[in-house]
């Protein structure tokens, strides 16, 4: 996968609203009144237009509208937001434009407007094809609602769809998880992209609290590993390339926006809590909703210029998330020294342990076993 051009920019828009917070979710999101949503979208427009001068030299290659649940706000507001982007930024003709959709928000009636607004990629949150498992997660939709949304998306001309699924759910076993995989792959046509994550219990969530009280039955470690291995096996058999630790795609349908994060591409985030990294400077917006609504252009905080060492670290541990790995030539071009001079001992040790491998074109990548132990390997690249 080619490296991003120097002046390419990604845009991310955070919509922090949902109908009901899922029991496992620790994202910056919550239900809100319609008036609050409208005020927020107005503030988001103001931040988008008012920040454009900072990015006059950049060409926008991808746009991602996430949350929360972006499909809870009106389709007209989404169209207005994208109109403001195209009016104020240089957007490439083939830009990838994604919006996240929850099947429980009755988004099917909004799909035509999304298409007309220039959205060309949907990311639909399924998580499981079993209604009992969905209820245990606190999801607001059923499998049947997901299928309806998916079919309507196809009817409205969407040819690039991601489906999110999760494993190691409460009460789930390998047979139940395999049924979810099979049902997703039986969709006509099957999705171009699938993100497959294992459930992580985050402190402060209802599911975490239930687990701490001994009220939650989760698959044991062996069954969790079986699900992980089954994901790789079934997707490979069905023509999906595992291009990143948790992401699988048909050829040519890798998520360009997410690849940009792992390749350290410049990205600007808008909305509360949204993170940015532009010109090797990281910063983010504050999370106070009231402050954002009153002063959307004055909420930037945690500004952190990255030193050369931090840039090297990120180049390695972010790039190693991708199965294509990292380019030794690119490292040398960016930092004026060889990766071997900085990480020689770490690379040698992990190759001997069967966790890293050399690939064509002077690239270093995780092996299959290295993917299984990715956190352990990548932590060693922190200088």
* H and E order: EHEHEHEHHEHEHHEEHEEEHEHEHHEEHH
> What best-fitting shape do the alpha-carbon axes yield?
globular
How many helix segments? 15
Count of distinct strands: 15
Q: How is the biggest beta sheet arranged?
A: 9 strands, mixed
- Look at the helices and sheets and give the structural class: alpha/beta
User: How much helical structure, as a percent, in the residues?
Assistant: 25-40%
Assembly state:
single chain
Radius of gyration: 21 Å
User: How are strands sequenced across the largest beta sheet?
Assistant: 7-8-6-5-4-3-2-1-9
Mean pLDDT: 95
Low-confidence parts lasting 5 or more residues at pLDDT below 50? none
Could you tell me how far the N terminus lies from the C terminus, measured between alpha carbons in angstroms?
27 Å
Task: Give the amount of beta strand, in percent.
Answer: 15-25%
Can you describe this structure in just a few lines?
The protein is α/β, with parallel strands linked by helices and about 375 residues long.
Question: Any overview of this molecule?
Answer:
The chain has 383 residues and is α/β, with parallel strands linked by helices. It is built from 15 helices and 15 strands. The strands form 3 sheets. A 9-stranded mixed sheet has the order 7-8-6-5-4-3-2-1-9, sandwiched between helices. It starts with 7 loop residues before the first strand and ends with a helix. 39% of the residues are buried.
């Amino acid at each position: 996968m080619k490296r991003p051009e120097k002046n390419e920019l990604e845009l991310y828009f955070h919509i922090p609203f949902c109908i009901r917070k899922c029991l496992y979710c620790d994202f910056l999101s919550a239900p809100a009144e319609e008036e609050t949503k409208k005020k927020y979208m107005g503030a988001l427009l103001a931040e988008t237009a008012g920040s454009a001068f900072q990015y006059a030299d950049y060409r926008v290659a991808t746009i991602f509208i996430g949350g929360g649940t972006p499909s809870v706000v009106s389709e007209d507001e989404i169209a207005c937001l994208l109109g403001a982007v195209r009016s104020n930024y240089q957007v490439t003709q083939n830009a990838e434009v994604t919006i996240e959709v929850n099947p429980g928000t009755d988004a099917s009636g909004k799909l035509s407007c999304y298409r007309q607004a220039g959205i060309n990629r949907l990311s639909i949150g399924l998580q499981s094809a079993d209604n009992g498992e969905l209820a245990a997660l606190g999801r607001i939709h059923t499998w049947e609602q997901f299928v309806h949304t998916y079919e309507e998306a196809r009817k409205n001309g969407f040819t690039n769809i991601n489906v999110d699924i999760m494993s190691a759910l409460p009460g789930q076993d390998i047979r139940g998880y395999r049924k979810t995989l099979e049902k997703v792959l039986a969709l006509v046509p099957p999705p171009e992209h699938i993100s497959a994550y294992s459930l992580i219990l985050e402190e402060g969530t209802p599911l975490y609290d239930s687990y701490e009280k001994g009220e939650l039955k989760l698959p044991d470690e062996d069954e969790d590993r079986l699900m992980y291995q089954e994901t790789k096996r079934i997707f490979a058999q069905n023509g999906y390339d595992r291009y990143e630790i948790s992401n699988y795609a048909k050829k040519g349908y890798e998520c360009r926006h997410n690849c940009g994060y792992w390749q350290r591409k410049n990205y600007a985030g808008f909305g509360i809590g949204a993170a940015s990294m532009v010109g090797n400077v990281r910063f983010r917006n504050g999370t106070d909703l009231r402050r954002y609504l009153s002063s959307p252009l004055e909420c930037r905080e945690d500004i952190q210029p990255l030193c050369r060492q931090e840039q090297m670290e990120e180049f390695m541990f972010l790039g190693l998330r991708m199965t294509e790995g990292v380019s030794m030539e690119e490292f040398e071009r960016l930092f004026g020294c060889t990766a071997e001079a900085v990480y020689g001992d770490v690379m040698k040790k992990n190759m001997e342990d069967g966790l890293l491998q050399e690939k064509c074109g002077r690239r270093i990548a995780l092996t299959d076993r290295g993917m299984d132990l990715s956190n352990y390997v990548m932590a060693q690249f922190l200088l």
